[in-house]
From TrEMBL:
Residue runs in coiled coils: none
Domain ABC transporter: start-end pairs: 402-630
Source species: Muraenolepis orangiensis (Patagonian moray cod)
Any one cellular-component term (Gene Ontology): peroxisomal membrane
UniProt protein name: ATP-binding cassette, sub-family D (ALD), member 4
Gene3D superfamilies given in the database record: ABC transporter type 1, transmembrane domain, P-loop containing nucleotide triphosphate hydrolases
Keyword Hydrolase assigned: no
Transmembrane regions listed in the UniProt entry: 55-74, 94-112, 284-310
Family, similarity comment: Belongs to the ABC transporter superfamily. ABCD family. Peroxisomal fatty acyl CoA transporter (TC 3.A.1.203) subfamily.
Any single biological process term in GO: very long-chain fatty acid catabolic process
InterPro entries found in the cross-reference section: AAA+_ATPase (IPR003593), ABC1_TM_dom (IPR011527), ABC1_TM_sf (IPR036640), ABC_transporter-like_ATP-bd (IPR003439), ABC_transporter-like_CS (IPR017871), ABC_transporter_sub-D (IPR050835), P-loop_NTPase (IPR027417)
ABC transmembrane type-1 domain ranges (all copies): 56-327
SMART domains referenced in this protein's UniProt entry, alphabetically: AAA
C-alpha cells in the first residue's frame, strides 16, 4: 500500500454460512504511478514466465501479423493517390489493374485484421488462465484463503478480484496489445515518411501535439483510477449481498426479512450506482479530451501539408501530380497522427488497466505476506500438503495428538485472554470433552491447535500428522463440498481409497447406513450421480451432521476432533454415533454443551472465561469427578 494510504474502516459481520466484510470507506489513492508500474511488471512476469512460453509465441505471431497488416494498410492508403494519377491520365488499362490490386489488398487486409483479433482473443483466454491459476495457487496454499477471508481486514472481496478483476484486466490488456505492439514500428516508419514529405515541421508539430495530449490526459485520468477501484469494490459488495441472501434464503424467509433485505440490498446498489455515476462524470472530461484530440488530429494534417504547398515547394507539379502528392502526404500525416491519437485513446483503457492492476497487485502482495508469516509461524504450512498422498502413507505409531505447554491465546483484535497457561497432553485412548460457556474460547482452542490462529504465548505441538491416519476435525458448521455423494463422503480426499470399485462402494454404503443417511443414495440416484442442487439447501442440519459422520467413519482417523458435531441430533443418535467412533478405534476430542456427552469421555476441560480453565477426570473411582493437578498423561 502507498504510504499515503489511509486505512479504511472495516465493518465485519458474520452471517450464517458466510462472513461478510464491508469496507465502509477506503481512501486509498491509486494512480498510474510507480507503484502501478511495479505491480504491472510483476503481473507480466506471471503472464510471460519464459521466452519459450506460449504467450510469448502468440505475442510474436501477433507482431508478425500486425506488421504485415500495416504493410498492407500502407499499400491501401496510397491507392487513392494512384487512382488520382491514372484517372488524370485517363489510363484505362492501369485503372483496371489498380481495381484488381485494390480488391486483393482489401481482402488480404480484412483477413489479417480478423487474424489479429483472433490472436488477441486467444491471448486473452491464455492470460486469464495463467493469471487466475497463479492467484489460485497462492489463495489455496496453506491457509491463505482462511486468513484472507476471516482475519485480514485490509483487503476487500478477494473472490471478486480473482474471478472478475483478473478477467477484465486480461480483456483490456488483450484489446491494447495489437495497438501497442505495432506502435513503435508504425510511428517510426510514418515519422520518416512525414519528414520526407514535409520536412521537420511535420513530425515536430505532430510530436508536440502528442506531448500536449498525453499530459492533459494524464491529468484527467488521475481521479478515474481511484474511482474505478472503488467501483469494483462496491460491485463486489453488491454481489456478495445477493450471495448472502442466496445462501441464507431459508433463514431470511423465517424472519419474513424480504423488506429489510430489500432495503439493504438497494442501499448497496445505490452506493454502487452513485460511484458509477461519479466515475462517468470524471470520464466525461477524459472523453472530451480524447475526442477533441482525435478531431484536431485530422485537421492538423491539412495544416502540415499546406505549409510546403504555400511555400511553393511543389509549384512545378502538374495538377494531377499535385493531387496525388496531397493524397499520399495526407495519408502519411493522418496515419502518423492517428498512431499518436490511438496511443492517447488508450489512456481510457489504461485507466481501467491501472484500476484492475492495483486490485490484483494488492491481492498478490497481501497473499505473499500471509504466506511469509504463515511459514514463519508454521513452517509446515509452506509445503503443499496433499491429503491424498498423506492418506497412502502410514503416519507411524503415535500415542499423543497434541502437547500444550503453558498455552495462552486470545481472539484477534481482543485484549483479553480467552485461556491462560493451559498445559495438557492429549493422548491416545483418553477421550477429552471441552466444555464451557458461549464465547469462552472452545472453538478457538481448536483454531490454535490447528494453527489457524497464532498462540499468544506458550507452546503447542500437533504430534500426529493431520489427515486420515492422524487427526481429523469436524467443524461446528458441517462443510459440504459441491459434487456427488461419493465426493461428499470421501472429502477431502480427491481420489477413492484404497481403490475404485465395488469394495469402496460397499464401505461407503455401509458407513452411510451406520450414520443413518442411507436414504441419500436413493435421493441422489447413486454414489456418482451428479446432483444439480446445493447440498446446503436440501439437507436438514441433522442430515448434514450425519453425513459428516459417514465421512469420519470412511476416513477413520486416529483422533477425531468434534466441534458440537451432534448438536442437531437426538441424544440417542448422538450415543450411537459416538459408540461407533470408539468401536472404529478413534480417540475423541469433543466440544459441546450437553452433559450427555460426558459418558463417552474420560477427561473434561472446562473453560471458565477470563483465561481460567479446569481439567477434571470423568472416570475416577466413585462417580464424582476430580480436578486434576498433574496434566501430563
Ligand atoms: N474471526 C474472529 N475474529 C475476532 N474474534 C473472533 C473471531 N472468531 C471468534 N471470535 C471471538 O472469539 C471468542 C471465542 O469464540 P469461540 O468460537 O471460541 O467461542 P466458543 O467457546 O466456541 O463458543 P460457542 O459455544 O458459542 O461455540 C468469541 O468472543 C468470538 O466472538
Amino acid at each position: 500500500m502507498p504510504t499515503s494510504a489511509k486505512k479504511g474502516v472495516r465493518e465485519k459481520k458474520r452471517y450464517g454460512d458466510v462472513s461478510l466484510c464491508v469496507c465502509v470507506c477506503v481512501c486509498t489513492r491509486l494512480q498510474v504511478d510507480w507503484k502501478f508500474v511495479q505491480r504491472f511488471l510483476s503481473i507480466q512476469k506471471v503472464l510471460f514466465p519464459s521466452w519459450t512460453n506460449q504467450s510469448v509465441v502468440m505475442f510474436g505471431t501477433l507482431l508478425v501479423v500486425t506488421l504485415t497488416e500495416q504493410l498492407i494498410i500502407y499499400q491501401v492508403g496510397v491507392l487513392p493517390s494512384q487512382f488520382y494519377m491514372v484517372l488524370a491520365d485517363k489510363d484505362y488499362a492501369a485503372f483496371s489493374n489498380l481495381v484488381i490490386l485494390a480488391l486483393l489488398l482489401i481482402l488480404l487486409n480484412s483477413t489479417l485484421k480478423s487474424l489479429d483479433q483472433y490472436i488477441c482473443s486467444q491471448m486473452y483466454v491464455g492470460w486469464r488462465r495463467t493469471l487466475t491459476e497463479s492467484l489460485h495457487a497462492d489463495y489455496f496454499r496453506g491457509r491463505v484463503y482462511y486468513t484472507l477471508n476471516v482475519l485480514r481486514e485490509d483487503i476487500d472481496n478477494p473472490d471478486q478480484r480473482i474471478s472478475q478483476d483478473a478477467e477484465r484486466l486480461c480483456k483490456q490488456m488483450s484489446s491494447m496489445a495489437s495497438r501497442l505492439i505495432v506502435s513503435p514500428f508504425t510511428l517510426s516508419y510514418y515519422t520518416y515518411q512525414c519528414f520526407h514529405s514535409t520536412g521537420w515541421i511535420g513530425p515536430v508539430s505532430i510530436f508536440g501535439y502528442f506531448v500536449v495530449g498525453t499530459i492533459s490526459n494524464k491529468m484527467l485520468m488521475g481521479p478515474i483510477v481511484h474511482t474505478l477501484f472503488e467501483q469494483e469494490k462496491l460491485e463486489g459488495d453488491f454481489r456478495f449481498k445477493h450471495m448472502q441472501i442466496r445462501v441464507n434464503a431459508e433463514s431470511a424467509a423465517f424472519f419474513r426479512a424480504g423488506k429489510v433485505e430489500h432495503m439493504r440490498t438497494d442501499r448497496r446498489l445505490q452506493a454502487l450506482l452513485d460511484t458509477q455515476k461519479l466515475l462517468m462524470n470524471k470520464e466525461l472530461w477524459l472523453y472530451i479530451g480524447v475526442n477533441t484530440f482525435d478531431y484536431l488530429g485530422g485537421f492538423l494534417s491539412y495544416i502540415i501539408i499546406a505549409i510546403p504547398i504555400f511555400t511553393g515547394l511543389y509549384d512545378d507539379l502538374t495538377p494531377g501530380e499535385l493531387s496525388a502528392l496531397i493524397s499520399r502526404n495526407a495519408f502519411v500525416c493522418i496515419y502518423l497522427i492517428n498512431g499518436f491519437s490511438q496511443l492517447i485513446d488508450l489512456s481510457t483503457t489504461l485507466s481501467d488497466v491501472a484500476g484492475y492492476t492495483h486490485r490484483i497487485g494488492e491481492l498478490r502482495e497481501v497473499m505473499a505476506d500471509i504466506l511469509r508469516r504463515q511459514c514463519d509461524y508454521d513452517p509446515a504450512s509452506g509445503d503443499d500438503y496433499d491429503f491424498d498422498s498423506d492418506f497412502q502413507v502410514h503416519a507411524g505409531p503415535s500415542d499423543t495428538a497434541f502437547v500444550l505447554d503453558r498455552l495462552s491465546y486470545r481472539s484477534p483484535g481482543s485484549d483479553e485472554l480467552l485461556v491462560e497457561e493451559l498445559s495438557l497432553k492429549i493422548g491416545q485412548g483418553r477421550h477429552l470433552l471441552v466444555v464451557g460457556n458461549t464465547g469462552t474460547g472452545k472453538t478457538s482452542l481448536l483454531r490454535v491447535l490447528n494453527r489457524l490462529w497464532e498462540a499468544d504465548s506458550g507452546f503447542v505441538q500437533m504430534t500426529t500428522c493431520f489427515g486420515p491416519r492422524g487427526i481429523l476435525f469436524l467443524p461446528q458448521k458441517p462443510y459440504l463440498t459441491d459434487g456427488t455423494l461419493r465426493e461428499q463422503v470421501i472429502y477431502p480426499l480427491k481420489d477413492i481409497y484404497p481403490a475404485a470399485g465395488l469394495v469402496d462402494d460397499e464401505r461407503i454404503f455401509q458407513f452411510l447406513e451406520l450414520a443413518g443417511v442411507s436414504s441419500l443414495v436413493k435421493r441422489t440416484g447413486g454414489l456418482d450421480k451428479k446432483v444439480d442442487w446445493n447440498w446446503y439447501d436440501v439437507l436438514s442440519p441433522g442430515e448434514m451432521q450425519r453425513l459428516c459422520f459417514a465421512r469420519l467413519f470412511y476416513l477413520q482417523p486416529k483422533y477425531a476432533v468434534l466441534d458440537e458435531a451432534t448438536s442437531a441430533l437426538t441424544e440417542e443418535a448422538e450415543g450411537q454415533l459416538y459408540r461407533l467412533c470408539k468401536q472404529l478405534g478413534m480417540t475423541l476430542i469433543s466440544l459441546g454443551h450437553r452433559s450427555s456427552l460426558e459418558k463417552y469421555h474420560d477427561l473434561s476441560l472446562r473453560l471458565c472465561g477470563g483465561g481460567r480453565w479446569e481439567l477434571t477426570s470423568l472416570r475416577e473411582a466413585g462417580s464424582s469427578s476430580q480436578v486434576i493437578e498433574d496434566t501430563s498423561f
